[in-house]
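Notebook p. 47: complex prediction with adenosine-5'-diphosphate.
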Amino acid sequence: MTLNKRYTRNFKNNISFYICVCILTILVVILYLDFDAAAVKMNDSLDIFRERFCVEDAQFSVLNEIDDEEIKRLEEKYDILLEKQRYIDYIIEDGNYELRILSVPKKINLYVLSTGDVEKDAPCISVEKGKILLNEGLATGNEIKDGDIIRVDDNEFEFISSFERPDYLFPIKEVTDTYALKAEFGVGLVSDEDFERLADKAKESNKLKEYYVIKYNSDNKNEVRKEINDKFHMLSYLKADTNTRVGTPKREITQTSNLMNVAIIVLVIFISVIIAAVIGRRIKGDRRQIGILIALGYKKKALSRHYAVYGLVSGLAGTLLGVILAFILSDKLIGFLFFKIEPIPTGYNISLVNVVLSVLFPTFVYTFSVYRSARKVMKSDVITMISGRSGRKGTSKLRMEKSSLKASTKYKLRQIIGKPGRSIIVVLGLGIGGMLYSFCLTAIDSMDSYVKHTVDQIGTFNYEYFLKNPELGKPNDGNAILGVSYEVKGREDIMMLLGIDSPDMINFTDPDGNKLDFEKDRFYITSMASLAFDKEKGDTITIVDPITLDEYSITVTDIVKNDSQAAIYCFRENAAEILGFDTGLTGGELPYNVIMSEKALDIDEAKLMKTISKQSLADQINEVKIGMENVTGAIDVFAIIICVAVVYMMVNVLITESTPSVSMLKVLGYRNKEINSIVLNVYHLLVPIALVLSLLLGFFSVKAVFAINVSEYKTYLETLIYPLSILKMSVLIIASYVLSLFLLRGKAGKVDLVESLKDNRE
Amino acid sequence: MFINLKNAKKYYGKGESEVRALDGASLELEEGGVYVILGPSGSGKSTLLNMLGGLDSLDDGVLEIGGAKVSGMKDKELVEYRRSDVGFVFQFYNLIPDLTVKENIQVVSDITDKSLSIDEVMEAVDIKKYENHFPSELSGGQQQRVSIARALIKNPKILLCDELTGALDSKSARLVLKFIEEVNKKFHTTIIIITHNEAIAGMADRIIRIKDGQVSSNKENPQKMKADELSL
Ligand SMILES: Nc1ncnc2c1ncn2[C@@H]1O[C@H](COP(=O)(O)OP(=O)(O)O)[C@@H](O)[C@H]1O
Ligand SMILES: [Mg+2]
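Predicted complex, structure tokens below:
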């Protein structure tokens, strides 16, 4: 068909427009394949990893060792897997990092080599003598290569490969940590023989740590816990779900994939629909030609098909390029997405179904849209089509008789209001592009503000020393606290019950800043706990002792402003009572196991379980912030591409649709600059609107994400954005806007002035 | 001579499909006259007019208007020439659809420093009462009067009219031509009207005929008539 010659010509003449369409389509496909589909796939892989490599259901420590025979008996009796796991922490002088050498598990928390695939490989249960495996984050963070020698105390091990374990995908040192400093702490595996040698030595200096991991197969958790507690005296019990180290990867990936599933799908559909609308719009410009062809006897069906090809070709070109780029970039982008946790060893291959989907969906939407708008154009009768008159009804008849605005300003206003479809796309395009950016800025600013201010609002203390064993009375220095972790009934999270004598190192105010009275037999929860567990003043919270499984219900008296810790404050006596501590036996002396202090205290290392400094809370959020800042780099690029491409496309459409006016202005002696200032500047007014929209969208998305993440960050982050960031936002949006106009500056100049006069009969 | 065109050539296309729209046309016209250019369709009338108005440039030949050498001007200079000296009226009016009648005229008065009063010009062509209407709300004759008002607002030296009555009924056409006549008298504007309607030639000072891209004759009109007297 001769008509087909139009294809090449048309694509060539509007090459920049179609390039824009292509770029946006590529973006859509990458976002979908590398962010959404990848996140969903990661979720699956993680489930498989946890399942096949037998991640623990819980870990606990006991006073009396459970020997192999007992383990065997319990396993058979309750249909469980039970395994003792041991580790030793070392400071590696050569590398300036801390290394935790773990015993190689045989039943639970099995490992996989980083080069392997959790879906295919058999779980590993041994390591060659003299060799060492390190988790990938530690190895890459310290640039450790195969064959490098790692010196652990006086022993030398050869590093042969990275590995991952399902319980250390979030390699934090203490389970109370929020962020994995991958270059500073990591885990390693050596052969059983080597481990025993290290263990023998470590025992002397009390450095060998032991705990038990358990995997249930039936619904008898409570019986098992009860028997173990009765027989071996449990000291602690931590469910995997409430264990940050084990639970975070699952939460992180599930949340990300849920977020991506909503956000990316919305973005993908939105961009596809914008593009489809814009391509469809261009067909209207061909009204006259369509009319003539129909007059010549072409069938409407054949013509619709002819036009549909424009959609088909743009769709295919964009999506196919997108698929190729998505494959190339997948590793990098997925790494970005899950920067907080270790990479899950799985040959991430983009599934064929997703590839097909990402090609078919945009292509179909574009093709259909073009087809539909061709059909719509053909609805009017041939004569009006040829005269070029139809379709002009839409122009706004805003008369603005009284207004003293310049004619060119009125023209712009009518362009904006008279063609709302076009304007809405501009606002949404800029708005969504900007939102990506404002989301990052808001998140970073909120974290920054937290690091700088919120932590200090908790109180004047700087250190919390957790003792291995409770002591009686009062410490020489600092305040005594009886602090115990409880499970919250019906929730996955844990919460501290803090019995204190007086709130003098705590900022004891309600969220509005009013000083609260601290009274006996009353329970105060932190604002963070209030948020995390959805409890208000007067509500009842049931806490469960993780060891005895005893339950206590308390009524919330008031809420204390503290966005960093989920805790209940009460009198030390009340806490002791709940613990079942019998003060009759101690002559009324109360126990404490935490010392809170403003200055660092010199406490015997042997007595100390762990130390939490207020600064470390801030440091960890700071790490999340830094990670976020890295991601922002990638998101900026997406944001700018979307903004520039959408504006470019829309101004392109605007110019095409105003060709007759542009050409007339030229005839009338308008200089190109003047024409640009009228035609290109139509959307200036929309920029501030888009800016406000993107700020709001970003702000409220962050607020929503923070609310969901209260448990993950172990803190509630107040959402805010600094004026400087608003300025950055404005600069980004305005710069992308100006950039696309700059790219289009020659476009109006190219409008042929004689040719369009002939065609137009308004 | 005010207008001096020598050996003008303008070819479109190449080889087989080459069209010689102007093929050695020469024309001399004095300032202040009403000139009608006649010729069959495709003879090169519009091309000639576009050259005179600086919408396009010649492949060969010389064009001088009011002492300025228009041929050889760069695009930028052509814009300035159109801006200050030329008014156009087209067969299909070519008003800007998103501007009202008044604003369509304003658009031109905005870029000139010798603008006439918009209200007066609107009164003169009798469209003042439609000043806040959009082009699509007017009849063809009314639109054409707006387009004349737009061309005249900057008081151009030359008014170029391409088939200006081509789309109008005879009553509207007469009204438009009458107005053109008045403009010529009042402002001494040089007026060139292109048409294939012989009757219009009656109101010309000189009648120019074009054939195959060349000026075949350029004669004084022995019986110049008023627009009112034309038998359209
Ligand atoms: N831009 C152009 N490209 C190609 N051919 C053209 C162009 N403009 C005019 N022509 C051709 O030049 C010839 C003269 O056209 P024109 O001056 O419009 O004639 P008239 O106005 O006398 O009808 C015609 O054959 C026309 O097809
Ligand atoms: Mg013509």
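Notes: Residues 32-57+86-229 of chain B form a domain with the Rossmann fold fold (CATH 3.40.50.300). The beta strands of chain B are 3-12, 19-29, 34-38, 60-65, 68-69, 86-89, 158-162, 190-195, 206-211, 214-220.
Next step: compare against the earlier run before touching the bench.
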